[in-house]
Specification:
With about 625 residues, the protein is of the alpha/beta class. It contains 16 helices and 24 strands. The strands form 6 sheets. Strands 1, 2, 3, 4, 5 and 6 form a 6-stranded parallel beta sheet that branches. Strands 18-15-22-13-14-19 form a 6-stranded antiparallel beta sheet. Strands 8-12-16-17 form a 4-stranded antiparallel beta sheet. Its EC number is 1.16.1.8.
């Protein structure tokens, strides 16, 4: 049923989102609108013609991402098709005033194409922009564009909708300068607390996974508090190896790489040292996000193996069901002394109905490294409750609007299940997350540093020390030993763990019943000076490397399967006309899809009619050293 916006200050706020980022930003806009005397009617773009008709709107804010090769997200595709109809009159949107925030990544072609296409078509159809369009780049940090764009959006909405600007309530707050008399003492305490923390983690024996799975079912249901704080303790000179068992849920084959915990130097870690340029200054930090989740632990067994993956939440860009495929071979394409290790995996798709072509991509459903999850539980003193049943609920009368349990998290499961399969514990914490951590930190100099990192004045510090260094939640917790957040706050702020996309590196006409994929194994050594307090591999590439060690060494007796699905693909395909010349540029593993392009053209070349000339085919490839990492050299 279509809804009319008759209230003063009311406007339509819509989003199109593939991974959830655009939706999260739109929800944040809706949350903050109330403080400006505005009322956002939040809708998804796929609700067009059901809950709204764009031609009847007068004020519209759009937040939309781009996916694939410049494609609109699946939940925006219908809307884009509607406005692109050639039969629409050129004054179709004459009553509409709008603005657009586009999300994209300059590491890929067609940056923010969906937002740009909507913007261009709106103009053609007579719509008018009341506020400039923003294009945020995830390659360098969405917040660089998103934060200032949001700052100007609300006054622009107030002006257009004739809302009294005196009703504005700041979406930020000011913090007082740090008392410098505390600085030296607090800085010394940070290092002492840090040393004690990892000392404790190293000396305390970590229970095995089998011990974790033992739940006392004989006692009646009892509520277990999760408010105990871990003793402030932290880092030893030696490397900590955490015993790791087979990962929970979809991954039951092979061993995982263990995390190594390393000692930071006593002083001078850039991540934790307050910035002298901000000394004595007030800081403008985000308002504290209102808490909205409550976790209740029950001393009762809970079988998580029966749960749907991520509560049955739809996977982004899925063009097929999730299928378990066997890995039949794993070949290392680089020399042992190459800068990066590159793997070529061959997947057996026989008897599986997978309609893929050169240019297709697939998603691999992966989970967090179990030893890393265990280390997080140890740091937060959650080990004793990690495998007990936990029930999530929304806090009654929470200040957060539209508060719900995230759809990708089951309301009843265990912390181990949630943190292993549902939440991305590697993603650099957002500024809102850092602001939340401030209130869980007791050391004043640690509090000040976290405030700097999430402040408007410290925007460059956040980019340099958090985003560019890919700092994880666990890195932060070791860097700031007095920070003890409740587990509910982590569940509220950690993003969804998404499948990892990989280009298909083969052609079904050339290799039937087989999919090849090629990738670099990401390895991040422990280096506290860069903010990395433990060694790690890429979540998915590290797991694939670990489980295929036997295949890499030539032992093909072990059966290994992984869960995959095909991703949607509309435009990235080789030209059907073989007489057309083609230029392909793919350095490193970027060559992957073009291997399939070349295989297809090679097979079809013989099908050219007499007199037809085969189009010139050029592939530009780059590597560091032709003797170490020249991928597919023989091919």
């Amino acid at each position: 049923m279509l809804e009319k916006r008759k209230q003063k200050g009311q406007y339509l706020l819509v989003y199109g989102s593939a991974t959830g980022q655009a939706k999260a930003i739109a929800e944040d806009i809706a949350e903050k609108s109330d403080r400006y005397g505005l009322k956002a009617d939040l809708r998804c773009l796929d609700e067009s013609d059901k809950k709204f008709q764009v031609e009847q709107e007068t004020c519209m804010v759009i937040v939309v991402s781009t996916t694939g090769d410049g494609d609109p997200p699946e939940n925006a595709a219908k809307f884009v098709r509607k406005i692109k109809r050639k039969t629409l009159p050129l004054d179709f949107l004459r009553n509409l005033n709008y603005t657009i925030l586009g999300l994209g990544d300059t590491n890929y072609s067609n940056f923010c194409r969906c937002a740009k296409d909507i913007d261009s078509r709106f103009e053609q159809l007579g719509a008018k922009r009341f506020y400039p369009t923003g294009h945020a780049d995830d390659g360098v940090g969405l917040e660089i564009v998103v934060d200032p764009w949001l700052e100007g959006l609300f006054p622009a909405l107030q002006k257009f909708l004739n809302v009294d600007q005196d009703s504005e309530v700041s979406i930020c707050e000011k913090t007082k300068p740090l008392d410098r008399s505390l600085s030296e003492e607090s800085q010394n305490q940070i290092h002492m607390d840090g040393t004690d923390l990892i000392d404790k983690i190293i000396t305390d024996r970590l229970p095995s996974m089998s011990e974790h799975n033992k739940v006392d079912g004989s006692s009646p249901e009892s509520i277990i508090s999760n408010t105990d704080q871990i003793d402030s303790t932290a880092v030893c000179l030696e490397i900590l190896n955490i015993n790791s068992d087979k990962i929970e849920h979809v991954h039951d084959t092979g061993k995982e790489t263990q995390c190594g915990l390393v000692l930071p130097p006593p002083v001078g870690i850039k991540l934790v040292v307050c910035d002298c340029s901000l000394e004595g200054k007030e800081l403008t930090v985000p308002l504290l996000p209102p808490p909205f989740l409550n976790a209740t632990f029950i001393n009762d067994a809970n079988k998580t193996d029966l749960l749907e993956h991520q509560n049955g939440c739809k996977l982004p860009n899925a063009a097929s069901d999730v299928l378990h495929v066997g890995i039949t071979s794993a070949k290392v394409l680089t020399s042992h002394d190459a800068v990066k290790k590159t793997l070529l995996l061959q997947l057996n798709t026989k008897d599986l109905k997978l309609n893929f072509t050169p240019g297709s991509s697939m998603g691999i459903v992966c989970a967090n490294n179990s030893s890393e999850v265990e280390l997080l539980f140890k740091r937060l003193k959650l080990t004793d409750v990690a495998d007990k049943k936990v029930e999530l609920s929304v806090i009654e009368n929470t200040a957060k609007r539209r508060a719900v349990i995230p759809p990708h998290i089951p309301p009843t499961s265990t912390l181990r299940h949630i943190f292993t399969t549902c939440l991305d514990i590697r993603q650099p914490p957002s500024k809102a997350f850092l602001r939340s951590l401030v209130n869980s930190t007791s050391n004043p100099i640690e509090m000040r540093r976290l405030q700097e990192l999430c402040s408007k004045e410290g925007a460059s510090l956040y980019s340099e020390h958090i985003r560019e260094c890919n700092i994880s939640l666990l890195d932060l917790l070791f860097a700031f030993p007095s920070c003890h957040p409740p587990v509910e706050r982590l569940i509220e702020h950690l993003p969804r763990l998404l499948p990892r996309p990989y280009s298909v590196c083969s052609c079904p006409e050339y290799k039937p019943d087989v999919i090849d994929i090629v990738f670099n194994v990401i390895e991040i050594p422990g280096d506290p000076e860069k903010g990395h307090y433990y060694s790690r591999k890429g979540i998915c590439t590290g797991w694939l490397d670990d489980i295929t060690k036997c295949l890499q060494s030539g032992d093909e007796t072990e059966q290994i399967t992984i869960p995959i699905y095909l991703r949607t693909n509309q435009y990235f395909v080789p030209p059907a006309d073989l007489t057309k010349p083609i230029i392909m540029i793919g350095p490193g593993t970027g060559v992957a899809p073009f291997v399939g392009f070349l295989q297809q053209r090679s097979i079809r070349k013989d099908c050219l009619s007499e007199g037809q000339k085969y189009g010139e085919t050029w592939l530009f490839f780059g590597c560091r050293n032709r003797d170490k990492d020249f991928l597919f050299r023989l091919e």
